[in-house]
Each structure stands twice: as structure tokens, then as C-alpha cells.
Amino acid sequence: MNNKFKIEKLNNLDFKEAKELVEITFRSVEHSSKDEHILIEKLRNEKQYKNDFEIIVKDKENNNKIVGYALLSEITIIDNEEKEENKNDNNDENQKEINYKNKLVGLCLAPIAVLPEYQKQGIGKLLMQEIECIAIKYKYPAISILGSPSYYSKFGYVPSKENYDIKASFDVPSEYYLIKPLFQNSLNNIKGTIHYQESFGLN
To answer: Helix/strand/coil (H, E, C) string of 53-79?
Structure first.
């Protein structure tokens, strides 16, 4: 790792600065909702949230200024064609439980941000390497990313629809909807739609 930067888990003392970093970074991003800084606060309140999923990069030569940020959150890949309906014990037609035969819990990376003046210094690479280590530590099978294929392909991410028949729950060009299996064969026999936590407002 570049001795100028250090990577660490986010703590509550850095919440405000991290939020400002995300807001500043996405101001100039063309395809952005501009509310990513609000999203990260919502995701912290999700029951699946883990503090280990939220990391930052600091510039040791600039008063430990936060210059990079990344957050992982759980997703569920569900094959809507492979499901069965179970009635409850009261045989109430309005109370059916749906069991999906083919589903998998993975992770998505959103958002990832590097301050504009610190880009092209390897910070994004540091964040990508660290989030994959975290995901592997917790034995998640894959990470999904919505982003530039020319950039994320460097880290082994490929279009999910074309390669694994895994698609988004919203309209997006398929070449930008990417995924990477973290273990050998971890996406074998998995297909369907990615569903996000409620904070994203996408399902």
C-alpha cells in the first residue's frame, strides 16, 4: 500500500466527513441521483448492516483527511420463475408464503467514492481490494456493481446478464450492471433478479 494512504473501518467520529466526501464526489457524476450521501445513512439503519462493510481511506500526509469511501450491503438474487406457494394452516387464500427455490444472498458495492482531487492515485484500487477481502471473510459468494465496465473489468467484474443471466430490478444498460463471483463456481446454477435493501427504493 502507498505509505501516503491508510485504509480503515469507518467509525462514528468520521460519519460527517465521510458523508461530505460522498456528496462532493457525486456532484459531478453524470448518471447519479445526487443522494448517495443520504443513502449511506439509511443503510446504516438496515438490520443487515455491518460496520465492517463501511471503509475509508485517509491521507496521512494531510491531517488524516478522508479521501476515499466504500460501502457494501446485502442483496438477494432471486429466480422468480422458481417458486412455490405454501398456504398457511388456516387455508386462507390471502395468506400465502412464497418460497423461492433458487436464491442467493450476496453483496453490492454502492457507493464507492474518491475525492476528485485524489483520483488516479490508486485509492479506488485500495478500496476494491479491501471490500473483496471483507466479502470473502464473511463468505459472501459475489459482489454486484453498477458502474463503468472499462474500469471495473480490471478487477474481474463482468456484465451479469450476459455471463450469469442475473439482471437488475430496474432499467439499466446491461453492460454497466456487473458482478464478480468470489469463489470458484459460487454462481453456478444461479440466475434471476437482484433485489436490494429497502433503503435503495428499487424493489
So the answer is: HEEEEEECCCCCEEEEEEEEEEEEEEC
pLDDT tens digit sequence for 66-110: 999 999 999 999 987 655 555 455 555 444 444 556 789 999 999
| pLDDT tens column, 33-64 | 778 999 999 999 999 999 999 999 999 999 99
| Cβ contact 98:83 at 8 Å | yes
The phi, psi pair for 101, rounded to 5°, reads -75, -25
C-beta of residue 129 within 8 angstroms of C-beta of residue 100: no
By C-alpha distance, which of 67, 101, 61 is closest to 81? 101
Q: How many helices (H) and strands (E) does the chain have?
A: 5, 11
Peptide bond connecting 111 to the previous residue in cis, omega within 30 degrees of 0: yes
Phi-psi region of 189 (alpha: psi -120 to 50; beta: other; left: phi over 0): left
23-61 burial, b at 16+ Cβ within 10 Å, e below that, comes to bebbeeeeeeeeebbebbebbbeeeebeeebbbbbbbee
